[in-house]
Histidine triad (HIT) protein
Amino acid sequence: MSSTSSEKNCYFCRVSRGEADPFIFENRSFVGIFDTHPVNPGHALIIPRRHAVSVFDLTETEQADYFDALRGVKAAIEATDLRNLYLNMLGREDLKDRPKEHIETVLKLDFLGNKPDAYTVGNNDGREAGRSIDHLHLILLPRYRGDVEDPKGGIRNVIPSRANYPRRLD
């Protein structure tokens, strides 16, 4: 199988080939890694091995492996000593030229040693949705009680002015 130029230069293709960032999970279609610019402790990415741009481009086999990868990465997050993970990231040779502010911030969080209380699962499917690398990647973001003042609305808050809406409880 030959690679296109975009695949050879794609960071997540390099990751899926094992050339960057150690795997925390893998199955036949996906690999999982910890994000080196974490928003919260345990922030991880699930990346297809094949260069796919959109979740809508996944084959039937990849679709079948998608939730297996999601469950596997969640288990890896919950089994990892995250404080040790981030201390090790600060010293990784392959990360020496990357900014470390996100890692340093996560190391200072009071809930760093806690088990996640919830998860946000996301995919910025396209540039207009906020994607910065044009290779599908699912974001698995552990959430902790108190990580934001008011989590109500969740993903709806990507457009803050339209996030709040009246709810009927009947």
